[in-house]
Amino acid sequence: MTKFINRLDNNTIAYNQLTGKKEGIVFLSGFNSDMQGKKALYLEKWAEENNHSFLRFDYSGHGQSSGSIDKTCFSDWYQDAEYLINKLTKDKQILVGSSMGAWIMLMLVKRIPQKIAAIVGLAPAPDFPKLLIWDEMTGNEKRKLVKNRKTSIKYEDGSKNDFSYKLIKDSFKNLTLLESIYFNGPVYLYHGMADDAVPYDLSIKIIKTFKGTKDIKLLLDKNAGHRLSETDQLKNITNIIEEIKTKI
């Protein structure tokens, strides 16, 4: 059942939580996605069947949480994640970050490593507003973005996302790949080589950024796209979690 929690700034965050006897898992969804997504619901069902605690939630401006997506940005969404993890979870958690959720995951590793046992990045997209949008724009496109306060990107599957100038500007102060990330737990990344939204080269860059851990792996799926939501892909995700569980 969906519950709601008020942050200190009166933002209302919607969440669902299971309490189990085994390791806690937190799912961090992607940009313009919410806790009703296929991966979030699949992992929750798997967690319940395997007696794991599990937390999924909607960022500000997403799903059932307060606010609007065009008036919020990464700093807000990161703060949502840190607040709920600190407030609602016990002991160290396994973080599963999808796309932008993996960016949030890397920020959490930097800021609250004491709460994190291991991380799983699914088509991870850290720093994407700068790396995949701003840095790819011409001077004219950048001026148009600043003037219109947003830009739109269409993908091969027919979907489209609008990205606000506020989000892109905010991303510059939240970049995670400019310096080494120190972490001692397992780091597992899973990326589709047919991903047209986030190139799998970014996962290779992430791996090179980590220091400290002796357990870091990247699973590349030749035919998988960005969503990683097909039956066999979902099974791969739970297999990764099962492997991680033997190491923490």
Topology:
Blueprint: E1 3-6, E2 12-18, E3 22-28, H1 38-49, E4 52-57, H2 74-88, E5 93-98, H3 100-111, E6 116-122, H4 128-133, H5 139-148, E7 150-154, E8 160-164, H6 165-171, E9 181-183, E10 187-192, H7 201-209, E11 210-212, E12 216-221, H8 231-245
Summarize the entry for a quick read.
The protein has 248 residues and is of the alpha/beta class. The chain has eight helices and twelve strands.
Low-confidence stretches: none
SS strand fraction = 25-35%
- Gap from first CA to last CA: 30 Å
CATH superfamily: Alpha/Beta hydrolase fold, catalytic domain
Number of domains: 1
Number of strands: 12
CATH fold-level topology = Rossmann fold
Gross CATH architecture: 3-Layer(aba) Sandwich
Helix-strand category: alpha/beta
Name the overall outline: globular
Number of helices: 8
Please list the strands of the largest sheet in the order they lie side by side.
1-2-4-3-5-6-10-12
- Highest CATH level, the class: Alpha Beta
Biggest β-sheet strands, sense, barrel: 8 strands, mixed
The portion of residues assigned to helices is 25-40%
Secondary-structure element pattern, one letter each: EEEHEHEHEHHEEHEEHEEH
Verbal overview:
- The structure is a single chain.
- The protein is an alpha/beta fold.
- It has a single domain, classed as 3-Layer(aba) Sandwich (Rossmann fold).
- The protein contains eight helices and twelve strands.
- The chain has helices at 38-49, 74-88, 100-111, 128-133, 139-148, 165-171, 201-209, 231-245, and strands spanning 3-6, 12-18, 22-28, 52-57, 93-98, 116-122, 150-154, 160-164, 181-183, 187-192, 210-212, 216-221.
- Strands 1-2-4-3-5-6-10-12 form an eight-stranded mixed beta sheet, with helices on both faces. Strands 7-8 form a two-stranded antiparallel sheet. A two-stranded parallel ribbon has the order 9-11.
- Strand 3 (22-28), helix 1 and strand 4 form a beta-alpha-beta unit.
- The protein is globular, with a radius of gyration of 17 Å.
- The two termini are 30 Å apart.
